[in-house]
């Protein structure tokens, strides 16, 4: 099993969710986050009004944080390529700020309600 951690643009969330649903992977966890890449924040990325105190929080008072969505998806190893390729297809614009995908090994999964473990807990 693998965990896919995806950091994507907020405006790509709906299309990503829809594409994953079509692929048969409706289960995911999502949270809103602020961050920056090696460009240290891109003002043009921010299309919503954000409190200047939030954007300027840093030791140097000039660091900008860009709103993103952080997705967590656990899939079987055999499904990894299909899910990663789907996320890439929806989110890759070729522009700075497209995000990141990180793949981590998962030792086990447990469905709390039924006690199922491994890949059975994912479906």
Q: What this model shows, in words?
A:
- The protein is 22% helix and 24% strand.
- By secondary structure, it is of the alpha+beta class.
- It has a single domain, classed as 2-Layer Sandwich (Alpha-Beta Plaits).
- The model is unreliable at 58-62 (pLDDT under 50).
Helicity level? 10-25%
Oligomer: single chain
Name the beta content range.
15-25%
SSE succession: EHEHEHE
- Determine the mean pLDDT: 86
How far the N terminus sits from the C terminus, by CA atoms, comes to 12 Å
* SS element count, helices: 3
Strand order across the biggest sheet?
2-3-1-4
Number of strands: 4
Rg (CA only): 17 Å
CATH topology: Alpha-Beta Plaits
Q: Which structural category do the helix and sheet elements fall into?
A: alpha+beta
Poorly predicted spans: 58-62
